[in-house]
Each structure stands twice: as structure tokens, then as C-alpha cells.
Design goal:
Largest sheet: 7 strands, mixed
Oligomer: single chain
Number of helices: 8
Structural class: alpha/beta
Strand content: 15-25%
Radius of gyration: 17 Å
Number of strands: 7
Helix content: 40-55%
Order of helices and strands: EEHEHEHEHHEHEHH
């Protein structure tokens, strides 16, 4: 299998998808809490962690990789918790995979322009600084590719989010790098969506606002599975 993953815990399967430049270890604290009640499938996205560093680098390909993992594990129904890039992939899964039953998307955006300008400037500056090193350094080339991914993708139209017919919890920090208006527009476009803005939080909710974030995630999952 080209995509690396780990399975931890027992219960209803939940796929965990990390952000740009990370790996599945960003969910280590979450695993400690949720693995008592759920089976967590921790995936390293393509070009990240222990997964293959070849092939198409796109959110659509990452979505297909997740679907292939689910197929390999012979899972008929699952939830997803996605952070940042993983949140984007979660929304794409919601539009394309009927096996997905509930979504938690943290810090997801529909287009690169929905990242606040100060962060866009910083990303472009990073790319310029990386260029000389890309000639001879493979890590610099990878970082350049990952930054370019965020600055070119995704290109999700709000109207397409109407395809998501499952309960979805959107989360972002009060001081997130994603524009709040984007989260609100996503929320309004979803048939069964909720939006929680963590007061005082930044983009990295699983790290810097963990207790508040995990409380909201647990509440959402408990309600969803109680109703099921």
C-alpha cells in the first residue's frame, strides 16, 4: 500500500487527516481521548510522513487515497476528522463518498484567497526564499511543492457543498488564518452543518486549544452516534 496508516482503538471507524507539512502524529492527544470509544484510522497523506512521495499532489488525489484505504480495510461506514488540508479533503470526501457518515472539519478553506492576506504573503515569501535551495535540496523542493499546493488549491464552489448530505461540524479559531466569512459561507451551504468558532483560538486548534476543541468534537460525535 502506497499510503501509510495506523489503526488504533475499537468502535465506529473515524479517519483522521492532518494538515500541510504534518503527519498523523498531530492526532496523538486526540487518540488518547477518542480511542476508548472509536476505531481511529490515522493516515499520512501523499507526500507526507511515511506515505509515498510520488504521483499527483492535489487534494483530489488525497481524497482518492483515503477512499482506497477505506476500501482496503473493507469499511462500510466511517466518520472523518480533518485539520486544515485534511479538512479540505474531508469536505471533498463528503461530496464523493457515500460511506462517509459524519464530518469534523477544522480550519478548512474553499479557495486559497480565503487565507488571510498576511499569511498568503508569508507563504509566497517562503517560496521565494526556498527557490535557491530547491536546486540541490530535496526537502526544500518538497516544502516548495506543499506551499504551492496551498496557494493553488482548493477551488471549491459553495454550491457544490450542497452535495454533502451528512452532519458536519466546522471548527475554526477566533484568530484563524482562514477568513471567518469563508467558514460562515461553508456553513450556510451545508444541509446539516454547524459552525463552532473557538474563542481565543488560532488555526492550530488541536495543539493550542486542545481541551476546548476535543470537547466540541466529542459532543458532536456523541450526539451523532446516539441518534444513529
Amino acid at each position: 500500500m502506497e499510503i501509510y496508516y495506523e489503526v488504533v482503538g475499537q468502535g465506529f471507524p473515524i479517519v483522521c487527516l492532518h494538515g500541510n507539512g504534518e503527519d498523523h502524529h498531530i492526532f496523538d492527544r486526540l487518540v488518547t481521548t477518542l480511542s476508548q470509544d472509536y476505531q481511529l484510522i490515522l493516515i499520512d497523506s501523499r507526500y507526507h510522513g511515511q506515505s509515498i512521495h510520488q504521483g499527483e499532489l492535489s487534494y483530489h488525489q488525497m481524497m482518492k487515497d483515503v477512499m482506497n484505504v477505506i476500501q482496503e480495510l473493507n469499511i462500510q461506514e466511517y466518520d472523518v476528522i480533518g485539520f486544515s488540508d485534511g479538512g479540505i479533503v474531508s469536505l471533498l470526501l463528503g461530496m464523493n463518498d457515500q460511506r462517509l457518515k459524519h464530518i469534523v472539519a477544522l480550519g478548512a478553506n474553499t479557495k486559497p484567497k480565503m487565507i488571510k492576506n498576511i499569511y498568503l504573503f508569508a507563504f509566497y515569501l517562503q517560496m521565494i526564499c526556498l527557490l535557491p535551495f530547491c536546486i540541490y535540496n530535496s526537502k526544500a523542493r518538497l516544502q516548495y511543492k506543499l506551499l504551492r499546493l496551498m496557494l493553488k488549491q482548493p477551488q471549491i464552489e459553495y454550491t457544490s457543498l450542497e452535495k454533502i448530505q451528512v452532519p458536519t461540524l466546522l471548527m475554526m479559531g477566533e484568530h484563524d488564518m482562514i477568513k471567518e466569512n469563508d467558514a460562515k459561507q461553508i456553513h450556510q451551504s451545508l444541509c446539516y452543518g454547524g459552525l463552532k468558532i473557538i474563542k481565543g483560538g488560532n488555526h492550530f486548534l488541536l495543539k493550542d486549544s486542545f481541551q476546548q476543541t476535543i470537547k466540541e468534537i466529542q459532543l458532536f460525535l456523541n450526539v451523532c452516534h446516539k441518534e444513529d
